[in-house]
Structure formats: C-alpha cells, structure tokens
Amino acid sequence: MATTSDIRNGLCIRYNNDIYKIIEFLHVKPGKGPAFVRTKLKSVTTGKVLDNTFSAGHKLEDVRVETHKFQFLYNDGEFYHFMNTEDYTQIRLLEAALDRPDLMKEGEVVTVIINTEDNMPLSVEMPASVILEVTHTEPGVKGNTATNATKPATVETGAEVNVPLFINEGDKIKIETEKGTYKERIKD
C-alpha cells in the first residue's frame, strides 16, 4: 500500500477497478484546512484521462511494475508491435496504451511498463525527445517574422508540429515528446 506522499509521475495505481498511471500531480497545502494532492490519472486500458483529488494520507493500492526496453517494429492499423531488445520476444499493444504514437517511427526504442502480477504490458513511455525529418511544410514568407512566428510542418511519422519559419522540407528536427513541441533543428 502506498500513500499520497508516494505519488510521483509514472506511478501505477489500482483505482475504480482499473489500473491508472499518474501523469501529473500537485501537492497542495492550503492555509486553512487539510492538505491534498491533485492528480491527473490516465487509464492504461482505455487511455481515458481523469482528474482526481486525494486527501493527504489517503491509502492507494499501487501496482508493482517492471520496465523493459522495446523496439517499435510496425503498426498494422489496430496494433502497435514491439520487440524486447534483450530476449527478442514480441508484444503488441493497442494505441490507447501509447502516450504519443504519432511521434514514434519504426526502430524507435521505448520503455514498456509491465505489470509484475500477470506480465501484461501497461503503457509505453517515449524518450524525452525524438529526431524526425520534416516531409512537408510551406516556405516561410520574408518579412513575416514579427516575433516567434511559426508554421505547421508534417514530419515523417505523419504528426503535425509547429516550427519556426526557417525550417524547410528535409530538415531534421528534435521534438519534445511530452508536449509534442519543436525543440531545435539538427545539423547533419
């Protein structure tokens, strides 16, 4: 059993007959009244996100998990297929278990969280950032650069990201996976 003081990002808990992963939390100690923890929980089975508030000291049923490195192989439309980089076993997951499937290209190594009770994969954690090639973007217009002007760009995985005007087709860019935002251009 865990308590609210054990809450951290990535903690998996059993709540309302489902397993949820904590994706955001905030400890709040108001000047008047008891402390509480405001959380954002993501269901590992359905992908549904819900906000919940736990009072301080509330008991939580945590789920024991292991993490393993898996390589993304391919997507067949319904399932995403992964291979364990240590023993080469393969698993397949529904899109709901993935945080940002639109930023994942074939060959990407990700961390898969596995429930130790039944060895079922719970969720997939992407690396902090990925490097992808821009496949389509409109050319930047000169004189259109008041401050921090951006334009939409499509990357090789099909995701759309807002990028600065100087980015062109064929450029490789680093994207922060948590927010899906442009970080920097990668020089070859």
From TrEMBL:
UniProt GO BP: peptide biosynthetic process
Cell compartment(s), UniProt: Cytoplasm
Cellular component per GO, a single term: cytosol
Alphabetical UniProt keywords: Cytoplasm, Elongation factor, Protein biosynthesis
Coiled coil: none
Domain annotation Elongation factor P C-terminal: ranges: 130-185
GO terms for MF: translation elongation factor activity
Domain of life: Bacteria
Start and end residues of each Translation elongation factor P/YeiP central domain: 67-122
Listed pathway(s): Protein biosynthesis; polypeptide chain elongation
Matching PANTHER family: ELONGATION FACTOR P, ELONGATION FACTOR P (EF-P) FAMILY PROTEIN
Family: Belongs to the elongation factor P family.
Classification via HAMAP family: EF_P (MF_00141)
Function, in words: Involved in peptide bond synthesis. Stimulates efficient translation and peptide-bond synthesis on native or reconstituted 70S ribosomes in vitro. Probably functions indirectly by altering the affinity of the ribosome for aminoacyl-tRNA, thus increasing their reactivity as acceptors for peptidyl transferase.
Protein's name according to its UniProt entry: Elongation factor P
Organism, scientific name: Xanthomarina gelatinilytica
Gene: efp
